[in-house]
Amino acid sequence: MTFTVIRPGMQTTLQAMPFTGYRHLGMPAAGAADCLSFALANRLVGKDRSEAAVEVTLDRAEFVADEPCAIAVTGAASQLRINDKPAALHQTTPIRKGDRLVIDAARSGCRSYLAVSGKLQSEAVLGSQSTYLGARLGGFQGRALKAGDRLDCSNSDQSVPIVRTPENLRPVHGDKYLLRIIAGPEYSVLNEQSRQSLEHVRHRVSMRANRMGLGLTGVNLHTEEMSSMASAAVFPGTIQCPPNGEPILLGSDAQTTGGYPRIAQVIRADRHLIGQLRSNAEVQLLLITTEQAAQIYRQKLVLLKPWLGDISLW
Known about the structure:
With 314 residues, this protein is an alpha+beta fold. The chain has two domains: 2-169, no CATH class; 176-308, Cyclophilin-like (Cyclophilin, Beta Barrel). It has three helices and 21 strands. The chain has helices at 35-44, 192-200, 290-308, and strands spanning 2-7, 11-15, 53-57, 61-65, 69-75, 80-82, 85-87, 93-95, 100-103, 111-116, 119-120, 150-154, 176-183, 203-209, 213-217, 232-233, 238-240, 248-250, 257-258, 262-266, 282-287. The protein has a seven-stranded antiparallel β-sheet, with no helix packed on it. It has a seven-stranded mixed β-barrel with strand order 13-20-17-18-15-14-21.
């Protein structure tokens, strides 16, 4: 079967698992920006979390199904409509040939995920089906979807059991987020006032926000020893402090090295939230220990396991 893209919205791509094992070659992780919403969508259509799904950013997106199948939408979408009739989010939804799907724009949060029963055909590169836009690799011809594109899907099945994401596992998307962090390798270069400001002042996501990274405004941090340094390894969730003092939070498509002090790192259990940050969202940072971060991650996996099985968050 195929899905025809009628309206792609601002930026709609095929995403799956991150690229792993190639950072020494300069290859970013990429993959679904919100790996939890991505996994929940695939679970609802009976698919493994490694299978590709459609990632929709902010805007409304529309598709037409050319054959019967089952779909599910999770994430920030305000509403799902099938032939202009409301359909439930976080639920398996059978659709028929010719049905028109509309994923309405997010009112809060940033990204939505459309999973389809059957296997979405995408270009596999370096062990992943994800799209890395920076190098035009993977996914659908290495680019964002355009009106008229046809997404091939093999072994589609409309008879997938209808299930719903348990209420306690549905992420809540708003305009205010708490991200827990641990001290980064260069945390010590912040002066005492900046250390206090990093944690106790509410940051706001600037207009400079995409899959690579997000600028944070509201506070200017000052370093006592350095404003730049020799390039060193960075990862999704790394918070850097450039010379202007406005922190940069790195996202899923973050580069592999950077030359600004790495003052903090968002903990693994919270990193999926970075994919839901939009411009003007409010971010509160909370500094914890590495031991606490590991415990929180283990607890989150225990919570998710009955529904999602043995998964990892990236």
